[in-house]
């Protein structure tokens, strides 16, 4: 029997641990794909990429990295639409994953964005399902949030960098206005 190959979009290292283990337990041969032009500033991008590389090494996960870091392009696409910025942010990353999955012959794709309890879970699912139909590659949905604690503990044990905000400069500023809530996109 041929093993089915899945491309897993990784938003960072810590969020990838539980989804990776779950998908492998389901029989998928998983490859990671790091593409996150939303992360600002550049030093933060580097720290999250480094954590993703550490998870990749420790878990023997082949990793594809798109490190064409262009915060200006990201900001141009969300400025004056700041309250809706997550739609663009999710879409651009999910679409990139779906296109690479299709081009490289993967059987399906998924995303670690479905792991965070603080993200807009239903919106991510909706965008991914729509992208899957448009690009023509199956999307695997799992509610990875149920493994939040397990993933969190594993990340702590690995000693990898765990971010304090969602990613863009807006979320970095907002964490100070929301009682210190971490990793939270706008309402
Ligand atoms: S809050 Fe998070 S999901 Fe929303 S635009 Fe910023 S980085 Fe992207």
UniProtKB/TrEMBL annotation:
The keyword Signal does not apply. Pathway: tRNA modification; tRNA-queuosine biosynthesis. Catalyzes the conversion of epoxyqueuosine (oQ) to queuosine (Q), which is a hypermodified base found in the wobble positions of tRNA(Asp), tRNA(Asn), tRNA(His) and tRNA(Tyr). It is an enzyme of class 1 (oxidoreductase). This is Epoxyqueuosine reductase QueH. One of its GO terms (biological process) is tRNA queuosine(34) biosynthetic process. It comes from Syntrophobacter fumaroxidans (strain DSM 10017 / MPOB). Keywords: 4Fe-4S, Disulfide bond, Iron, Iron-sulfur, Metal-binding, Oxidoreductase, Queuosine biosynthesis, Redox-active center, tRNA processing. The keyword RNA-binding does not apply. Disulfide bonds join 166-168. One of its GO terms (molecular function) is epoxyqueuosine reductase activity. [4Fe-4S] cluster binds at residues 11-12, 86, 89. Belongs to the QueH family. Its EC number is 1.17.99.6. It catalyses: epoxyqueuosine(34) in tRNA + AH2 = queuosine(34) in tRNA + A + H2O.
